[in-house]
């Protein structure tokens, strides 16, 4: 099946070439980081995790979001999603690869990375995160590949593949729950120590992941002969709507608890993020941009006429993607470190090299995704699932 | 609830079925109860040390007011090759340092607080918590609490994920963002200042180790020794398990506070106000 990735239009090669160019620049920047240390980033003693870990956190959500097409198909026997489960699974593979790369570039001593396996520490949530993320990666590779191979041969996939597909469903929930536990079990970081963290992570994942998938489906329909289908997009739109409403609701619950209880520690990070603290307000414009996009997304998604119109639905998905990315991929991780344990505000600003490395990892993800989608769609075109 | 003969036999029978034996079985099915059933209400005095520090801020501040005393910090950083990055707070490394009262005890501050402590520079270091979140989160067991209470750091195993820095509620941990040997020469002319102590590589976390290298040869931490040598005696180090130790007597006779006790980490650095 792999050979299908080697034949493509000029546009396909152009896309891969430009992604490869970004990746190359990223590798060059990473080599300087490898040699000089993480001091080339904007992180500090006080903000000890930055953009890398924030991107990791967001992308675990994107990976988990893929389950929103797998679950209805396998559990509710919702046949329509059979056409696009492979797109969800391949998106999950690309997203998990990005997650692992973001962890890798964040590690201060990457040559010692295997110590996590040599000295397994079940008390550490990071240990479990390693297990669930790698497990999810392999589950999606095995299930996606075998289902696709069966589709190519025009036969039903094997029973054990279906079993693994069932396993992958709770597993998807586990990756984002465990990632939330990285934050939610730490004493003294008041923005993070909240029982609702895993629920917030899952709701934003199930809004953002399917949003990206829906946009990719539209792109696939435009660029190839494979049509993911009108009904499929409409159902996805409904899923995104519910998840996004929950996500915004959960965020407001945090605001209520912090401000009605009046506990200063619970308020200070939120105050820093949305209003500025002690004269520091670098993230305030970002957070209000996030609020703006979340509101736009809700308007476009909740009104039925707008949700059913594919143009406004696509715009709504873009708004969900940007709104949740800022909230989770910037505000949540960085905001958790501010104020620091001494109740001082020390801000964070990523460096150019740090941003380039991030972009290069995103490019790597899309490089992998392009190849996987090329293979999947070539097969769908061959077996003639081109019209609905 | 204690383990009586009947219950003991039940557990023994049950555990035989699982192939477990003796004390192990009791530990699993009724942890701690065998010990409790021996009838002792107070912890049995053992030879096990539990190292802790008491900081008499009255004495410390008196000395600081006389003439900017920084002897303990200078000695620690010299002995442990902790590089100085000057005003570059982004790369700052510190094992023991000064922090104003309101920053060290943010929840205990109020605007009418006594001039004795207001904005006064207190001494901060790793609290060597009994229940340390940093050790819990470490994915490679590079940081762990020893039986004698010292929170240790294996600089050769640390992968630099910095989870411990996120987990420490006291900001006690520093990260080698770059190579410490490349710290600015004009600020660190003699680096490394102690050829007998290792310098670190880039990409590992470090912090105060209660001078475990000195404890091992029967010496007290260098900050405490320095404070004694200049006849201030503001830093006192000792064994919490020994009722006759100086720190136990001080804690018994004077009012002490610890940082963020509400988080349940059980810090072992006590401040006398």
Automatic annotation (TrEMBL), chain A:
Topological type in the membrane: Multi-pass membrane protein
Keyword set includes Nuclease: no
Gene3D superfamilies membership: Formate dehydrogenase/DMSO reductase domain (1.20.1630.10)
One Pfam family here: NrfD
Superkingdom, natural source: Bacteria
NCBIfam families, per database record: DsrP (NF045798)
Protein name, per record: Polysulphide reductase, NrfD
Species of the source: uncultured Desulfobacterium sp
Gene coding for it: nrfD
TrEMBL record, chain B:
Gene3D superfamilies: 3.30.70.20
CDD domains named in the record: PsrB (cd10551)
Domain annotation 4Fe-4S ferredoxin-type: ranges: 149-178
Highest taxon of the lineage: Bacteria
Pfam families on file: Fer4_11
Keywords: 4Fe-4S, Iron, Iron-sulfur, Metal-binding
GO MF annotation: an example: metal ion binding
Family annotation (PROSITE patterns): 4FE4S_FER_1 (PS00198), 4FE4S_FER_2 (PS51379), TAT (PS51318)
Protein name in the entry: Hdr-like menaquinol oxidoreductase iron-sulfur, subunit 1
């Amino acid at each position: 099946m792999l050979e299908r990735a080697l034949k493509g239009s000029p546009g396909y090669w152009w896309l891969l070439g430009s992604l490869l160019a970004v990746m190359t620049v990223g590798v060059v920047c990473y080599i300087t980081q490898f040699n000089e240390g993480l001091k080339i980033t904007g992180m500090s003693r006080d903000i000890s995790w930055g953009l890398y870990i924030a991107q990791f956190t967001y992308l675990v959500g994107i990976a988990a979001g893929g389950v929103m097409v797998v679950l209805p198909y396998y559990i509710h026997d919702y046949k329509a999603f059979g056409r696009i489960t492979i797109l969800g699974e391949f998106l999950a593979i690309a997203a998990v690869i990005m997650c692992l790369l973001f962890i890798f570039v964040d590690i201060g001593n990457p040559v010692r990375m295997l110590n996590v396996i040599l000295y397994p520490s079940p008390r550490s949530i990071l240990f479990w995160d390693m297990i669930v993320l790698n497990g999810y990666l392999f589950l999606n590779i095995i299930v996606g590949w075998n289902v696709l191979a069966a589709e190519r041969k025009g036969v039903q996939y094997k029973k054990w593949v279906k079993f693994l597909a069932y396993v992958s469903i709770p597993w998807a929930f586990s990756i984002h729950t465990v990632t939330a536990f990285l934050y939610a079990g730490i004493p003294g970081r008041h923005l993070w120590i909240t029982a609702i963290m895993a629920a917030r992570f899952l709701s934003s994942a199930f809004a953002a992941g399917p949003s990206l998938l829906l946009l990719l489906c539209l792109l696939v329909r435009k660029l190839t002969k494979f049509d993911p289908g009108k009904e499929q997009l409409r159902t996805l739109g409904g899923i995104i709507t519910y998840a996004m409403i929950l996500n915004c609701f959960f965020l407001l619950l945090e605001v209520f608890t912090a401000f009605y209880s009046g506990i200063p520690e619970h308020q200070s990070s939120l105050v820093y993020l949305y209003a500025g603290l002690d004269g520091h307000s670098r993230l305030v414009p970002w957070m209000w941009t996030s609020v703006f996009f979340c509101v736009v997304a809700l308007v476009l998604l909740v009104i039925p006429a707008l949700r059913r119109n594919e143009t406004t639905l696509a715009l709504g998905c873009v708004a969900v993607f940007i709104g949740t990315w800022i909230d989770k991929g910037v505000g949540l991780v960085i905001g958790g470190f501010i104020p620091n344990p001494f109740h001082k505000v020390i801000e964070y600003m990523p460096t150019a090299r740090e941003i380039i490395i991030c972009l290069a990892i995103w490019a790597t993800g899309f490089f992998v995704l392009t190849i996987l989608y090329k293979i999947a769609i070539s097969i769908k075109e061959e077996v003639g699932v081109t019209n609905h | 609830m204690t383990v009586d003969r009947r219950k003991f036999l039940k557990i023994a029978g049950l555990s035989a079925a699982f192939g477990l034996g003796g004390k192990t079985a009791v530990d699993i099915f009724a942890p701690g109860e065998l010990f409790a059933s021996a009838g002792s209400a107070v912890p049995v005095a053992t030879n096990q040390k539990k190292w802790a520090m008491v900081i008499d801020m009255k004495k410390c501040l008196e000395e600081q007011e006389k003439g900017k005393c920084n002897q303990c910090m200078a000695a620690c950083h010299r002995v442990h090759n902790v590089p100085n990055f000057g005003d570059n707070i982004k790369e700052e490394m510190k094992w023991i340092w000064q922090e104003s009262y309101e920053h060290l005890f943010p929840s205990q501050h109020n605007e009418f607080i006594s001039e004795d402590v207001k904005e006064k520079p207190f001494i901060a270091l790793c609290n060597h918590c009994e229940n340390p979140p940093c050790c819990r989160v470490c994915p490679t067991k590079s940081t762990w609490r020893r039986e004698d209470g010292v929170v240790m750091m294996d600089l050769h195993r640390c992968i630099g994920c910095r989870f411990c820095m996120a987990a420490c509620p006291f900001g006690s941990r520093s990260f080698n963002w770059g190579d410490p040997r490349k710290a600015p020469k004009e600020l660190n002319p003699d680096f490394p200042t102690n050829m007998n102590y290792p310098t670190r590589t880039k990409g590992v976390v470090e912090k105060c180790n209660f001078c475990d290298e000195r404890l091992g040869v029967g010496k007290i931490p260098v900050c405490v020794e320095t404070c004694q040598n200049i006849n201030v005696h503001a830093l006192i180090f000792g064994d919490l398990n020994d009722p006759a130790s100086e720190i136990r007597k001080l804690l018994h006779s004077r009012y002490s506070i610890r940082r963020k006790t509400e988080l349940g980490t059980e810090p072992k650095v006590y401040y006398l106000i």
